[in-house]
C-alpha cells in the first residue's frame, strides 16, 4: 500500500465509484469499500489490484486482493472473495483507480515569505508559490498552480492554469498551456546550441531569439532540457511526454501525444508528427521529419526522414525487418568464417 507519509489518500471509496473510475463492470455489492491499490502478490482484502499481462496470470489464483481490474479473458479466474472489475483497458482503468484513491495534493494558496515575486507579475487565484521561488517581471502564473521550492520563472513567461513546477525547475522565454507538469530540475527555454565558427578558430554564439511553447498537459521529466528556438519557436504539442534526461534542441516541433524516453536526444529543427514514440538513448539528427505514429527503437541513430507508421531501429536506423534480416545475415557470415577458420 502507498506510504501515507508521502501519498495522500481519499479512501475508503465505494466499489461502485471505483468501477466507474475504471470504466469497468462488476457483480457484487457496490457499497463495499476499498482503501488503496497494490500488486497482486501483496494486495489485501481492502486493496484494488490489476492484471494486464498474461505472464502474471499465475499470481491471480493466489492473490488476496479485494478487487482486480482485468480483461474479460481473465474474469473467470478471479478467486473467491475478490471482485472482477472487467474492462477493455485494464492498465488505464487501474491508473484511474489509483488516482481516485491517491489524488495529487491540492495547491495551498499563498506565497511563501522567502519567495521573490516581481511587483508586476500576475499570480492566479489559488496558486501556491513555495520557498525561495522566483517569479520575474511581467510573468503571468495561472490559477491553481504549484511552484515548488527554488523554482525560477523568468521575465514575461506565461504559465497556464493548473500547472505543477517541481523543485529547481527553471523556465524562461516560454509560454506554457494548461496542466503542464515540469519535474525536478527540468530546464525550459535556455539558449540553444547554435554557433558560427570564426576564421581564427573560435566560436561565436548565434543569438537564440525564439521561444518554447508547451501545449496543454505536456509533461517534462526530471533534468530534461528544452532549448528555445533560434529564429522560430520550439514547440511540444498537447499531451507530449518527455522522460527524464531528454534533450530537445532548438526549433524542434512535436505534434500531439509524442513520447520521448530517457536519454534520447533530438537535434535542432526536427519535426515529429502526432503520436511519435522515441525509445531510450535514440538520437535524431537535425532537420528531419518523423511521420505520425512512427516508432524509433532504443539506441537508434536516425539520420533520414521516417515515414508515418514505420518502426525503425539500429544505427544508422532502418526498418525493423531489414535490421533483423541484416543482423541474421551477419551472424551467419560470422559463424561460417569461424567454421572455415577451424577447418583450415
Automatic annotation (TrEMBL):
Organism: Paracraurococcus lichenis
Function (record text): Catalyzes the N-acylation of UDP-3-O-acylglucosamine using 3-hydroxyacyl-ACP as the acyl donor. Is involved in the biosynthesis of lipid A, a phosphorylated glycolipid that anchors the lipopolysaccharide to the outer membrane of the cell.
Family: Belongs to the transferase hexapeptide repeat family. LpxD subfamily.
SUPFAM superfamilies from the UniProt entry: Trimeric LpxA-like enzymes
Domain of life (superkingdom): Bacteria
Active site: 250
Name of the protein this chain belongs to: UDP-3-O-acylglucosamine N-acyltransferase
Subunit structure and binding partners: Homotrimer.
